[in-house]
Each structure stands twice: as structure tokens, then as C-alpha cells.
Amino acid sequence: MRGLAGLTLLLAALGMPGAAAAEPRCVVDDAQREICLDRPAQRIVGLSPGVVELLFAAGAGDRVLGAVRYSDYPEAANDVPRVGSHTRIDMERVLQMDPDLVVVWASGNPQEQVDRLKSLGMTLYFSEPREFEDVASTLRRLGRLAGTEETAEAVAGTFQAEMAELEQRYADAPPVRVFFQIWDDPIMTVNDTHLISKAIAMCGGVNVFGHIERLVPRLDRESVLAAQPEAIMAGGMGEEDTTWVESWRSFDDLPATRRDNLFFVPPSSIQRPTPRIVRGSRIICDHLETARERR
After folding, report:
1. pTM (whole model) above 0.85
2. CATH number of this structure's domain 19-161
3. Which end of the chain has fewer CB atoms at under 10 Å, N or C?
């Protein structure tokens, strides 16, 4: 024991990697819980496609041994074994993997299953980015837990710089009233606390349903018609499926339809709180510039 303690002190004095690995790695997650690991996580399970994408972006992709359905970015994420879906976790599969870190989607995973994982003594990190800055912070925190700080810092810094550039470019853009559709049956949108709505606002848009209290409100078609949006944006069931946007083309009473301001946004570029939200934000900004030109 004395020899091991002496070796640890010597490594610390020399700045050797063994000392850093022995230091506790502590961060505060999005549920304001302190998470500490004795050493960098080696066996990580991610419980949403966005979480898995963040782990890869933070440089920890090779540590991810379990992911949920639709975890498809980057390409390497397709090869990670599945542990169910974000709405129904395969608990037995997770337990078999014996992870040293489970990254939970705070508002998306079933609460009773999350509670069960916690009761089994698993180390959980709750992820719920609600601001652009939270995306960068999440990258840094996951990098800290995985021991991939250098990669995480580089990606986070680039993300912040690109978002700041967009914010500055459109700071004085004339407002455009926008309806953003994220689901078709029932029709669903987002309120102003959602990152999608924050991207719209950054580009000079005004979310016509941003005032609704619920994060993801359900709507009827009459509500959209009454709101009279100047632009309608929607994703779809796939990266090139424009069906939801096209369904509004028959409603001539809408300013968005009359001016042909019906715009498609690839869903994965904007619906996951990851560095790719830069791409989605640029698409939204470009669409709103088109709407302004058509006035």
C-alpha cells in the first residue's frame, strides 16, 4: 500500500498520465446533480439519439457500448449495439453491459426505468440542453467524464463561434412570423423555451405559438390557420420527406402559402441538441431571408 501511494505521488509530481487518471472526475449535470467518477468512463450507454451524437462529438464514441434506436449519427453510431428505444429501455441489456456511466435524456426517457437504473446503483448523467450554451457545456462535461477533454473543448469552441457569428449576422433582421411543425398527427410544434424556437428567434423569426406553456404543444389545423404565419417550416418522417410542408399548400388563406413560404428543414439538423444544430439554424436563417425577399 505504501509503495502504491508513493508511486501515485511520484506520478503527480512528474505530471504523468497515471496521476490524472487517478483523480476524481466531477461535473454537475442538467438536473443539478454532482456526478463523480474515480477514472474516465470506459463503458458508456446513451439513452437518446441526441445523447449518443453528443458523446461521439465529445470524442467518447469509442467508449459507447450501448445506444437506443435511431442513433444514426455519426455513421459509426449505427454499429453500436441497441438497448431498446428512448421510450422503452431494454433494462436487461443495459445491466448486462455493466456500464460505468449512463447518459439519460432527462425529459425523454421513462421515469420509472430511470428510477430503476438509479436504484441499481448505476452512475447516471442527466442531459437536457435548453440553451445553445448548454450544448457546448454538455460537450465539455461529457469530455471531462470520458477523459476526452481536448476533443470536447475543440468541438465546443467551434460550435460557440459559429453560433455567435449567426447571432451577430441576423441581430437586426426584420421579424417574420413562423409556425414550425415537428409532427403531423397530431400536429405538434414547440414553445419559446425549446432550442428550435431559440434558433428561429436568433434568425429574426417570431414563433407564433411560442407563448404556449407546454414545451411541445399539440394543435389543431384551425389554430394554425387562425395564427396566420408568414412562413411555415417542417421536418418530416425522413431527411428528404417534405410531405408535412406540402400538406399546407392547399390553404390559400395562409400568408405562408400565398407567398410560397413553405420550407423544409431536415429534422436531424435541428431536432437534436447537438453541434449539428448550427446547420439547422443556418437553414432556418436562409429560409427566413427568402420570406423577407418575398414581401
Report:
1. yes
2. 3.40.50.1980
3. N
